[in-house]
Give the backbone structure.
Amino acid sequence: MANAVLRSFLPIFSVIFFLTTINVASAKPFSKTVSPSSLGLKKEKLTHLHFFLHDILTGENPTAVQVASAATTNTSSSFFGSVVVIDDLLTAGPDVKSKTVGRAQGMFAFASQSELSLLMTINYVFTEGKFNGSTISILGRNAVFSGVRELPIVGGSGVFRFARGFALLKTHSFDVQLGNAVVEYDVYVLHY
Ligand SMILES: *[C@@H]1O[C@H](CO)[C@@H](O)[C@H](O)[C@H]1NC(C)=O
Ligand SMILES: *[C@@H]1O[C@H](CO)[C@@H](O)[C@H](O)[C@H]1NC(C)=O
């Protein structure tokens, strides 16, 4: 009987314990000024990354899949309203079998009613050398039929903490039948 009563209170005890734990953790001040050196930040540097992205829509192992579209997307010459999620391979050379340097993971939406123009919201995660596990995040407009497109880097992680900069995108090859594309990236990123 007493045990049963105790057991019925157990969830409450665990909630109280949980709240106590939270309270201890939140004893840190909400904000304070710290020196950049406390995070090991020294001199900002500029890194140039050069690689190729493989956007595979059609084939045995597509790395770009349409996940949504509007009722009117299939009547739009610019695919307006279509949303595609990607996990695209990044390689050092234009050949898909050249050295892998990372992946581009995120999504793009066809965001123009009059031309092929994408809203890109994509994280680039690198696997090469000192950049292994570090990411940069790009949010920008990609008018895919323009010669060179410039997209802003809005942040990063790992060695790319505090990242800012831009990426220049140039279509290296495009298979009109399959929709598959290889895109050359020149990335200029400021970081510590
Ligand atoms: C567009 O898609 C809708 C729904 O999937 C379909 O009913 C319609 O026939 C399609 N229109 C064209 C022009 O393909
Ligand atoms: C990158 O890091 C992962 C996990 O830490 C490790 O398994 C992998 O071998 C590393 N790759 C390279 C190319 O250093």
In short: The chain has one domain: 44-191. The radius of gyration is 23 Å.
